[in-house]
Amino acid sequence: MKCTESPKWAAWVWSVRQAFTGRNLALVGGLMLAAGCQVIPKTTAPAAPPPAPTPEPSATALPTDSGRHRIALLVPMGGDTAAVGQAIANATTMALLDTSADNLRITTYDTSAGVSAAARKAIADGNKLILGPLMANGVPAVQAVARPAGVPVISFSNDTSVAGPDVFVIGHVPEQSVRRSVQYARARGSNR
Fold this sequence. Notes:
By secondary structure, the protein is of the alpha/beta class. 42% of the residues lie in helices and 12% in strands.
């Protein structure tokens, strides 16, 4: 059947075309926009009963989330290096959220009042790995607390002299950069 043979079909197409003119579309859009501006009255929720008092945790009790790996992040949150410490803490949080790992728990401890106290608190809280401290001069104090507890330390320092048993350095080591730069230059044919 051809479209020209059916005047009803042509009339229907013409009526639909007339209905979707710019003015009609603007009117329908305006009505839809106005419908979205409804004011919803606020209702008050019934008052919930007060929560039952929880007993205070014992000072010696370890956290109960034994299904997660507990990691301590020791960084300065005050003082001259607070911006670096905050940046590391933020990067750690972003990395943890990016991995969607629900079996890790990373807790940040402020070292601006002393790295030894922060390390003691981290170990007392049940952490099994310490990330930090930021500076090499804080590593021996953290190591003195972590080694008896059997907790490994990964320092952000670039001083390889602080590395030792259960103490690892992940900071940017200048010697590695120089070595790689020289290797790259030689691979490109440079002899100077």
